[in-house]
Specification:
Helix 2 packs across helix 3. The chain folds into 2 domains: 76 residues, lambda repressor-like DNA-binding domains (434 Repressor (Amino-terminal Domain)), CATH 1.10.260.40; 46 residues. By secondary structure, it is mainly alpha-helical. Pfam families: HTH_19 (PF12844). It comes from Flavobacterium cheonhonense. InterPro entries: Cro/C1-type_HTH, Lambda_DNA-bd_dom_sf.
Length: 122
Amino acid sequence: MEIGIKIRKLREAKKMSQMELAYILGISQSKLCTIESNEDKSIDFVLMHKVCQFFGVGFDHFIDYKAEGQPTKGQLSLSTIHDAFEDSVMNQIHFLIVDNRSKEHRIQELLFQIAQMKRDQT
């Protein structure tokens, strides 16, 4: 069973509308509709993490295995989850580093301005 269908089944089990779940996940109702109908298969790690947290399931809930233990076509594999997690975390770390540098630079500018103002007062 594909990811979108599993999300729909979890939503329906909670007797929720698409609008309610979309709001909770921070996406549009039309985006959720395309995910649930498997028209949109570009579900990122952050969104999957929100889905798992809200429904209290792990990523493995969305993995279907054949008898040989391999994911079926159209399903997430463990390596895909790992890669998505790694990419997402690395992107978030990169963003935080850039944001932190920007804030440090702004702090230095403000400290310089304070020092100038103190000099000007004396």
